[in-house]
Amino acid sequence: MIDSHIDIPWNEKTAEGLPCWHKRDQADVAMRDVERRFTVPKAQAGGMGVACLAAYTPQAGLDDAGHEAAWQRARAMLEAMEEMVPLHLSGQAVLCRRVPDIRRATEAGQVALVPVMENGYPLADDPARIGYLARRHGVRYMTLTHNGHNLLADSAVVRQGPAEVHGGLSALGREVIGEMNRHGVLVDVSHASRKTMMQAVDASSVPVFASHSCVRALCDHPRNLDDGQLDALKASGGLIQITAMGPFLRRGGGGTLKDFVEHVLYVARRIGVEHVGISSDFDGGGGIEGWQDASETHHVSEALAVAGLDAGEIRAICGENMLRLLQRAEDKISKCQT
C-alpha cells in the first residue's frame, strides 16, 4: 500500500509572511495515540507500507527574500525527514530513494519513507537545484506549483493576482522539467493549472502524474482533472492518485470513502486501472469518513474489493502503478548517464 502524498507537520509562515524554515520536532511520528494522522505505528496498523513525505512550501513573494526562505524551508524539511529514522524510527522505517530500496524495506516489514517536494517555488530561477535535491536528499517528485503562480508555471488556484502569468509553463519551467527527467524526479501536476498540466505532459520525456488530485467530472473543483486531462495522462503513460480530501471528492466537502472509491472507479473505467492510485494528503488537510488516518488504510483496499475489483487490480491501484512510474523515472536516469 503506497500513499503518494503525506505532509509532515510544520509551521506555515514566519511573522513576516515568509515560508517558515524553523524545524519542528518530529518525535510524534513514532507514536500511535497522537493527533498527527500519519505516524509509523498508525501506518503499520493500517497496512500502509510506503509513505511519500512532502516537503511543502507555501507560496510567498517572487523576490529574493521569499525565494531564500523557501529554499531554507525545503532543505530543513528534507533534513527533518532524514533525521526521523535514526532519532525516532530505528528498525521500524527506512528512508528510501529507489524502487529496490522500497521493496526491500516492505519485505522486511518496515515502512518505506520516500522524500518528495510540494511546490517548485524554492528553486527560484535556478534549475540546478533539482540535481542537488535529487542527489543530496533523494527527492523523487516535485509539484510544479502550489496555490499561486511561481516562476515555473501557473497554478490552478490563485488567491490573489491575475488568473495566469505564463499561459501555462514558463521557459524556466520547461528547463526545470528537463532537469527533473534527467535526475529521476517525477513531474507532479497536482496544483497546476490546466494549461500547465497539458504542456507538462508534452514537455516531459517521462510520464507525468498527479500525486493528490480527484476527478472534475464528479466534483467541479479547479484542483481536479477533467476528462481531457485524464485522456492526456493515459496517452503519456501517466497516473492520477485520487486523494482523500473532502472538498475535492464532493463539492462543498463532506466526502467519504464511498466518494473516494467512485473517483477511483471513474478513472479506471475511463483510462484504465493502470493509470490510477491512492493518496491521503494526511496532515495537509486530508482525512475522510472511512479513512481518517493511516491506521484505517486497509479500509481502502477493502472498499475497492467490495466495489468489484479483483486482487490484481487492487494491487495495481494501491501500489504497483506508483512503483512502476518511479521505476520509469529511474530508468531515465540510467539512460542519461550512458
Automatic annotation (TrEMBL):
InterPro entries reported for this sequence: Metal_Hydrolase (IPR032466), Pept_M19 (IPR008257)
Pfam families: Peptidase_M19
Domain of life: Bacteria
Protein name, entry field: Diguanylate cyclase
Annotated organism of origin: Parasaccharibacter apium
Top-level taxonomy: Bacteria, Pseudomonadati, Pseudomonadota, Alphaproteobacteria, Acetobacterales
